[in-house]
Amino acid sequence: xxxxxxxxxxxxxxxxxxxxxxxxxxxxxxxxxxxxxxxxxxxxxxxxxxxxxxxxxxxxxxxxxxxxxxxxxxxxxxxxxxxxxxxxxxxxxxxxxxxxxxxxxxxxxxxxxxxxxxxxxxxxxxxxxxxxxxxxxxxxxxxxxxxxxxxxxxxxxxxxxxxxxxxxxxxxxxxxxxxxxxxxxxxxxxxxxxxxxxxxxxxxxxxxxxxxxxxxxxxxxxxxxxxxxxxxxxxxxxxxxxxxxxxxxxxxxxxxxxxxxxxxxxxxxxxxxxxxxxxxxxxxxxxxxxxxxxxxxxxxxxxxxxxxxxxxxxxxxxxxxxxxxxxxxxxxxxxxxxxxxxxxxxxxxxxxxxxxxxxxxxxxxxxxxxxxxxxxxxxxxxxxxxxxxxxxxxxxxxxxxxxxxxxxxxxxxxxxxxxxxxxxxxxxxxxxxxxxxxxxxxxxxxxxxxxxxxxxxxxxxxxxxxxxxxxxxxxxxxxxxxxxxxxxxxxxxxxxxxxxxxxxxxxxxxxxxxxxxxxxxxxxxxxxxxxxxxxxxxxxxxxxxxxxxxxxxxxxxxxxxxxxxxxxxxxxxxxxxxxxxxxxxxxxxxxxxxxxxxxxxxxxxxxxxxxxxxxxxxxxxxxxxxxxxxxxxxxxxxxxxxxxxxxxxxxxxxxxxxxxxxxxxxxxxxxxxxxxxxxxxxxxxxxxxxxxx
Length: 693
What we know:
Elements: E1 23-31, E2 37-42, E3 45-50, H1 52-55, E4 63-71, E5 77-86, E6 89-90, H2 99-112, H3 115-119, H4 121-129, H5 131-151, H6 159-164, H7 174-184, E7 193-197, E8 203-209, H8 214-221, H9 226-243, E9 254-255, H10 257-265, H11 270-273, E10 285-286, H12 289-294, H13 296-311, E11 320-321, E12 324-325, H14 326-333, H15 337-345, E13 354-359, E14 362-363, E15 368-369, E16 382-385, H16 387-392, E17 399-403, E18 412-413, E19 419-421, E20 429-435, E21 440-441, E22 449-453, E23 456-457, E24 459-463, E25 467-472, E26 479-480, E27 488-493, E28 502-505, H17 516-519, E29 559-565, E30 571-572, H18 573-578, E31 589-599, E32 606-614, E33 617-618, E34 622-627, E35 635-638, E36 665-666, E37 681-684, E38 687-690
Parallel strand pairs: 25-35
Antiparallel strand pairs: 1-4, 1-17, 2-3, 4-5, 5-6, 5-7, 7-8, 8-13, 8-17, 9-10, 11-12, 13-16, 14-15, 18-28, 19-20, 20-27, 21-28, 22-26, 22-27, 23-29, 24-25, 29-34, 30-33, 31-32, 31-34, 32-35, 36-37, 37-38
Helix pairs in contact: 2-5, 4-5, 5-7
């Protein structure tokens, strides 16, 4: 990219009070340090090393961004990110008030899936809400689930303990307490990302504030609401009761020298802060829950230690609760790159830190800061830097946010790498099956390409030699000037030059778009973040009876439904079912765009006819069709198929598929013969003849 637009404040597309200055639209993000572009390659797999030339036709470089003006306590302008997505992955997303429904949905999916499917269930559902928003939802939901379970333990407590805790006179049960805590504390934790304007127009630094446990401790110690402390302490007592019989877990209140040393390496010196702490007969420092929650620094390091333990297979206890073995669970979590990266970052992240996204690898003498999700791709890596490090590496933490516009040098183009199309009486060109995360349209005045909608009822035709063949109508009324977001379509390019195949990306709001300012007000907060499946447009095959004609409801054909793979990785049939969530019913087949090549009867004119052929591997950013078994022969043709093979299969069948010239010999493939061979069957004047010696 050789030039930057002077402003990324798109007034015409923003809504409400932010109409003049919200950052809203589709953008590419460029590293100020390297000059290369950020590319999304998969879930948690993103790298900032895509060149300008490669970015132009790379869907993984097009980011959907909505950010709203906000101000720090010092009055400094920043932009709070509402939505940031690419390739169907919503990165941040909106908070959900129905988080219990979300966790139940996740649990049900995991319980009903096979192993491969369950491995990606959390990941798939998180993309609908945003990874950060879903993290908040899961934490809040689990807190309520645990509180409800602990409520059942109260009756197991000794009578004197129940009397000491004032259980008979309490005003709320633990489930209601957890819900109130979530509303007053959890929902207010700042998990937003912010764009901090840089020195140049369109340049920003992206940061977020790491979790601060101070509000939790303040809630616990609030003297104006003694019921807070009472409910916590009832929960603590029930926790001890519940955990006492669970082998390998302990109560969470005893720490050995190794754990105390771990805290010290993180910057929290427990012994120095608690000189009166003593060990019990087992050599453990006993620190009660009441003390942990009353001191926010201790609470943060305690939580950090247990988070690390439960996602590190080496440290996870070999214990099981509710059917989940923690060591197996940790091993499964490490299959996901974000968890691998999180383990690397845990030691260096301090409470309440301001963390900046950086391009490159950095070290502070103790820890190496490396990319979350790109540990093996050989690229330059992202890092997260604290304020002091970020200020010392300005270029590495500066990102140019550049609008994608077909009228500038930062555009999106369809790369002509599809299948050649030169059926008789049709213009030669390339035909691609596409599935993009953003809507596109043909720019005005450009006639280099044609877009087609692929969601069509299959028509059928009987051919002389191929028999019954079903096809998708690509007549003029199937063409469309624009496509929808996350919808399969076909595009025919008439030239080989990328610059000739520019498309215009269309900004449009959608259900679930999140404004972090209005959504934080209870009366205006949306109930959820609703989007379609983030990898593929999930649709289910319709039966023939479901497909109707305009003229009276008589079924005419099977509907070939379009799907697509967004990420820059191919999908096998197994992946479509497990990872991408496609419901491949028994007997259904997957068809991928291919080409049937043959020659005309003169033996010299090659033709390339587009077909959806049965496939087991689907390319990325690519549409495919799903259709029921038995409804198709070898494939699904795009456009009415031509009987291009001109083959004769039976010597008794004298009916010719084409009109041959009189008194001229043709072979059984319909090719003119100039040097006949004795003992061979030929076609002469519409009849098969055997040329004798």
